[in-house]
């Protein structure tokens, strides 16, 4: 019996020793994996930055800390898209919409700009001709995304869907809107004058914007959307212009399914992200942070809103509708007069006694 106990004790000691070795090996393996994880992430981030940040002809340091790279126009990041591999750049549209200027709709060579627009980085220089300014993407920009692959991609359901203020949809997406819109026709562009403010943002992961949406298709996976512009009737490209002097670029028509032909809805207005900090509605402002009924001087507005029709003419939109998910937080009111044409006031403060 003693020999059996001795053998058993000896075997148990070996088993314990083996278990200890296995546990130690597992601990070391996990520790190594933990050490490697940040390095792998760093490598992935750096590879992504190398893809995003193109070789520059010149780099300019902005006073706010940004670095602006002057990238050769033919090397810009857009050409990473497989559909643009052999695309020949068009430097200006063939036609402007009738009514955009008091002159022919045929596009001519750009004239000298009467009101040059400056940006903060311009104090330290400007980009040479045949280059485009691109803000250099930094490591922190990529790390703010949920993953490296998600960086720069839009989340679904961030486009306002009129008449569908489903509470579940609002809570799931976190995006809230106050917009005016038109639908039921074919649209080939849109225009507006936007009253710009500096809304206060409560959380770093939230934003507040004012823009227009040009939409084609249905609200699902097949929706096409761009957020400015008009369609050139010759090539079908969607062009973006700021003011009378700045044609900023275009989206080639072959990138789209529905928008290759025309848009089916135009929206103008504001959007915020409500992350519900502390379980309450955000206090992030939309527009000026004032409700529409407070009017001129306090409330933000869009005025002279127009659409481009199938004859390439700018005209006043018909049957303007409005939409907001929570009018006690952000609201919208339309109107029209001789000076402003069709207009609307919009926005709000977010959290308030009626918006908790």
UniProtKB/TrEMBL annotation:
Residues 1-33 form the signal peptide. PROSITE patterns: NEPROSIN_PEP_CD. The keyword Signal applies. Residues 94-114 are annotated as: Disordered. Keywords: Signal. Residues 102-114 have a biased composition (Basic and acidic residues). Residues 169-356 form the Neprosin PEP catalytic domain. This is Neprosin PEP catalytic domain-containing protein.
């Amino acid at each position: 019996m003693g020999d059996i106990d001795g053998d058993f004790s000896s075997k148990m000691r070996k088993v314990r020793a083996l278990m200890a070795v296995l546990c130690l090996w597992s601990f070391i393996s996990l520790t190594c994996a933990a050490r490697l994880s940040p390095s792998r992430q760093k490598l992935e981030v750096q590879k992504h930055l190398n893809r995003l940040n193109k070789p520059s002809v010149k780099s300019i340091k902005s006073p706010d800390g940004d670095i602006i790279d002057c990238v050769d126009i033919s090397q810009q990041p857009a050409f990473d898209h497989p559909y643009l591999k052999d695309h020949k750049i068009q430097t200006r549209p063939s036609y402007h919409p009738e009514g955009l200027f008091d002159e022919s709709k045929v596009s001519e060579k750009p004239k000298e700009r009467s009101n040059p627009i400056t940006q903060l980085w311009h104090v330290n220089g400007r980009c040479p001709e045949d280059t485009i300014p691109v803000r250099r993407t930094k490591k922190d920009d990529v790390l703010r995304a949920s993953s490296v692959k998600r960086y720069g991609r839009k989340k679904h359901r961030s486009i306002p869907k009129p008449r569908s203020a489903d509470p579940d949809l609002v809570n799931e997406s976190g995006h809230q809107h106050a917009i005016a819109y038109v639908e039921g026709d074919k649209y080939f562009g849109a225009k507006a004058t936007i009253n710009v403010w500096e809304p206060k943002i409560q959380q770093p992961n939230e934003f507040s914007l004012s823009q227009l949406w040009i939409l084609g298709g249905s609200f699902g996976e097949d929706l096409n959307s761009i957020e400015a512009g008009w369609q050139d009737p010759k090539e079908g490209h969607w062009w973006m212009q700021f003011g009378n002097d700045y044609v900023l670029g275009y989206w080639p028509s072959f990138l789209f399914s529905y928008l290759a032909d025309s848009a089916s809805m135009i929206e103008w207005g504001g959007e915020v992200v409500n992350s519900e900090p502390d379980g309450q509605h955000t206090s992030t402002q939309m527009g000026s942070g004032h409700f529409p009924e407070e009017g001129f001087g306090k409330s933000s507005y869009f005025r002279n809103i127009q659409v481009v029709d199938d004859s390439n003419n700018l005209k006043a939109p018909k049957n303007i509708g409005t939409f907001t998910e929570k009018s006690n937080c952000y609201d919208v009111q339309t109107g029209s007069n001789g000076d402003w044409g069709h207009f609307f006031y919009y926005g709000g403060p977010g959290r308030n006694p009626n918006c908790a």
